[in-house]
């Protein structure tokens, strides 16, 4: 094990939320890779069954089964510090319900019959809280699972959950409240209590993925307030994704060169039609300065939340496996993992 500290050393369940499209799945996958260093085992769970993880890792659709999909970064080039393993699991409410029936009642075949009869859809439709508790139940079960002989005693050193978007996250995680109308006693109730014990403990952190735009920032701040309102729940980091680098210094942004001077310089450089070129460049500069200012303002709003902030660059070529490893390395450098 490396001796360096990271911001979330005591956390074993990382819940990743964010406004849809801000890169929740991408950041969850990069975080899982980053956590899978030094021979550690990490499980990456996709809650909303869209097979985004399989696509990210260039794999065929994942079955409802924990599968090894990637190897984390080794820290030393001499091979003394091997990378860890990332496993993945795509949860759908149906698979989770069958799993649940099997675990608590030993009824897999009855569950399959229920599925054929359309009972699973029926059950999760009349009781949406049920589907949430099944997903969080699977994530917390994997978090608590013991494995004798492993270095930590646990099957996984960390679990990363690609969770529902910010607007739903409070209700999704607050399982005790969700099932209270569903079951007052019995196995669902005690299952929900076990789930809540993990989620409302220092072992769990809820991270927010955000881009530096007004709507995602507002949703992030609202989501943080929702999580803080639930006693015992821990807000994690804010992951600013798709950050664009400022191309100019603060000074140049504040005082861009004037049109005449630029036109003259372009003329001196022997360029054709320096006047309209200078005008286009100046407009471009103004637009860039405006974007940087807007992003700075949104960043300041996020800072006011008082949580650790990490920043991941916009990768212009798009996200492939190499890009994912690059984002994971960023997260390691910034001590998120
Ligand atoms: N840092 C990044 N740089 C470039 N593209 C990104 C980055 N993060 C995410 N994307 C792209 O943005 C899109 C949405 O990302 P995704 O992770 O699927 O978001 P979400 O899960 O929040 O809906 C995808 O096409 C993804 O490849
Ligand atoms: Mg997603």
List keywords for this structure.
eight-stranded mixed beta sheet; Rossmann fold; binds adenosine-5'-diphosphate; alpha/beta; binds magnesium ion; 337 residues
SSE map:
Layout: E1 13-18, H1 24-35, E2 41-46, H2 52-56, E3 67-71, E4 85-90, H3 93-105, H4 108-116, H5 119-126, H6 128-144, E5 158-162, H7 166-173, H8 175-180, H9 187-199, E6 204-210, H10 214-228, E7 235-243, H11 250-254, H12 259-268, H13 274-303, E8 309-313, H14 321-333
Parallel strand pairs: 1-5, 1-6, 2-4, 2-5, 6-7, 7-8
Antiparallel strand pairs: 3-4
Helix pairs in contact: 1-14, 3-4, 3-6, 5-6, 6-9, 7-10, 10-13, 12-13
This protein binds adenosine-5'-diphosphate and magnesium ion.
Magnesium ion binds at residues 24-25, 52.
Describe the structure.
- It is a single chain.
- With 337 residues, this protein is an alpha/beta fold.
- It has a single domain (13-246, 299-333), classed as P-loop containing nucleotide triphosphate hydrolases (Rossmann fold, 3-Layer(aba) Sandwich), CATH 3.40.50.300.
- The protein has helices at 24-35, 52-56, 93-105, 108-116, 119-126, 128-144, 166-173, 175-180, 187-199, 214-228, 250-254, 259-268, 274-303, 321-333, and strands spanning 13-18, 41-46, 67-71, 85-90, 158-162, 204-210, 235-243, 309-313.
- It has an 8-stranded mixed sheet, sandwiched between helices.
- α1 packs across α14 (321-333) and α6 crosses α9.
- The radius of gyration is 24 Å and the shape is elongated.
- The mean pLDDT is 87.
- Bound molecules: adenosine-5'-diphosphate and magnesium ion.
């Amino acid at each position: 094990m490396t001796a360096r500290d990271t911001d979330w050393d005591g956390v074993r369940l990382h819940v990743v939320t964010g406004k849809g499209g801000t890169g929740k799945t991408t950041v969850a996958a990069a975080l899982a890779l980053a956590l899978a260093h030094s021979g550690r085992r990490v499980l990456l769970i996709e809650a909303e069954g869209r097979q985004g993880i399989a696509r990210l890792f260039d794999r065929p659709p994942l079955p409802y089964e924990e599968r090894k999909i990637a190897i984390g970064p080794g820290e030393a080039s001499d091979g003394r510090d091997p990378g860890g393993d990332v496993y993945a699991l795509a949860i759908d409410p149906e698979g989770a319900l069958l799993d649940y029936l099997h675990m608590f009642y030993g009824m897999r075949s009855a569950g399959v019959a229920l599925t054929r009869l359309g009972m699973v859809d029926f059950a999760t439709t009349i009781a949406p809280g049920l589907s949430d508790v099944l997903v969080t139940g699977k994530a917390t079960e994997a978090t608590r699972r013991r494995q004798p002989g492993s270095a930590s005693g646990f099957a996984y050193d960390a679990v990363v959950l690609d969770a529902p978007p910010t607007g739903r996250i409070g209700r999704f995680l607050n399982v005790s409240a969700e099932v209270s109308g569903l079951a007052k006693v019995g196995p669902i109730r005690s299952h929900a209590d076990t789930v809540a014990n993990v989620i409302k403990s220092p072992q769990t952190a809820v991270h927010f993925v955000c881009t530096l735009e007004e709507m995602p920032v507002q949703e992030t701040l609202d989501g943080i307030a929702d999580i803080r309102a639930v006693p015992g729940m821990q807000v994690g980091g804010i992951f600013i994704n798709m950050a664009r680098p400022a191309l100019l210094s603060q000074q140049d942004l504040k005082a861009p060169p004037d049109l005449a001077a630029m036109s003259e310089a372009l003329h001196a450089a022997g360029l054709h039609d320096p006047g309209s070129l200078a005008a286009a460049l100046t407009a471009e500069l103004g637009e860039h300065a405006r974007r940087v200012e807007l992003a700075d303002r949104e960043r300041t709003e996020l800072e006011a939340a008082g949580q650790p902030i990490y920043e991941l660059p916009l990768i212009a070529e798009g996200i492939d496996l190499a890009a994912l490893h690059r984002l994971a390395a960023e997260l390691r450098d910034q001590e998120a993992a």
